[in-house]
Sequence to fold (265 residues):
Amino acid sequence: LPHMTDVSLGDLGGLGDIGAGNDTDVSITFTDDESDQKNLLGNQTHGSSEEEIKNASFYSIHYYRPFFDVSTKQVGGRLLRSLVPSKIAFYQEGGAKPDLYGPLWVASTLVLLMAVTGNMANYINFLPTETNVEWRYDFEKVTLAASMFYSMISIVPLIFWFSVTRLGVTGLPLSEVISLYGYSFFIYVPSSIVCVAPFELLRWITVGICFIVSTLFLVRNVWLKCKECAEQFPEVKMKIYGLLVAVMVINLAVAFATKLYFFHW
Fold:
């Protein structure tokens, strides 16, 4: 009977010794080498060390991991605090660090919610006509909502941060500006549900409240970071005021776009 010969990967060089005339079956076994597994997977299976995160490249996933290292309780508390005006800076209590999980959640939720509630409001107010007999879902609302709210947590904060940095403002990292912008729009989440009601005055009041709460939260927290620089350099103060006015105008544009496009009757 033929006999079996076990050959490991390290012995592959000796396969030539097994002649073609030998009635031998070759069984190759793969050994589980822990060192090979470690080299292939690195430390990903065990999490990243603080040193790796600190030295991570801007284009690496590890660089952004600390901005998503928050609990549900922390994010929920910050969402609620964004609705209540406070004299204390948003990230001053307990040395809290800015996160990007909350802003990303707010923007993504608004994209879906604005599209759904906007179409619901349109459906409630729909009146058939000779040219428009049947109501149809407006998919463009998803595109506009995504363009508007994702821009408000990316492009707009980047431009604002670059502008205040050029004026000499320190202690206001880009991550904090993005985080403040994201949390400032949380008021639109419950308000979009209220705007489904077919009452035009209620919708205008609701959107107006969104603008006031969102703008006060954002402007106040940004001003607390820019205040020291404005007091030290009076010539910069008016420029900072100008940037804050620009923030208000952009927020007002978002409020009008929300009302006139998503909840217009």
Residues 7-16, 26-47 have pLDDT under 50 and may be disordered. The radius of gyration is 29 Å.
